[in-house]
Amino acid sequence: MTIFEMSQKFPQEEKYSLTDQIRRSSRSVCANLAEAWRKRRYKAAFIAKLSDCEAEAAETQVWIKFAVKCSYIDIQQGRELYKNYNQVLKGLVKMINNPNQWIIGK
After folding, report:
1. Distance in angstroms (rounded) separating the CA atoms of residues 83 and 104
2. What are the pLDDT digits (tens) for 36-81?
3. Helices 75-97 and 43-69 meet at what angle, rounded to 10?
4. What's the CATH superfamily of 18-98?
5. Which residues contact 63 (CB under 8 A, 6 or more apart)?
6. Contact in structure between 46 and 39 (CB atoms under 8 Å)
7. What is the rounded CA–CA span in Å between residue 38 and residue 42?
8. Is the pTM of this model over 0.90?
């Protein structure tokens, strides 16, 4: 929601580019995680969805950098958001590397 609220202040000319992209990628992290959680009966499907989450989180970090460079958000806010996504990525990588503790048993 922080990304959504922050992006409401982006210039109108960014509506179909940066605004749309950062909103889509940030929301996709959550949506893919929900899908991964429901697929945790199947290790490969679980890991695949978590990998999608990881990619979307990394993409969101790229858009955060663009928002800072374009002066749409200040550098401190950008650093805080980027740091939050590093924490998300850390958790995702841990789950990807240790999926068995999350998989529903047979």
Report:
1. 31
2. 999 999 999 999 999 999 999 999 999 999 999 999 999 999 999 9
3. 170
4. 23S rRNA-intervening sequence (1.20.1440.60)
5. 18, 21, 22, 25
6. yes
7. 9
8. yes
- The answer to whether 31 touches 88, Cβ cutoff 8 Å, is no
Q: Give me the residue label for tokens 């749409």.
A: 72
Q: Exposure string (b/e) for 20-50, b if CB count within 10 Å is 16 or more?
A: ebbbebbebbeebbebbeebbeeeeebbebb
Indicate the residue type of 63: W
Q: How many C-alpha atoms does 80 have within 13 Å on its Cβ side?
A: 8
What is the DSSP code (8-state) at residue 73? S
- Two structure tokens written together for 93: 């990588």
Residue 86 corresponds to which tokens in the numbers above?
A: 């590093």
Structure tokens at 36: 């991964």
Q: Residue 14 is inside which H or E element, if any?
A: none
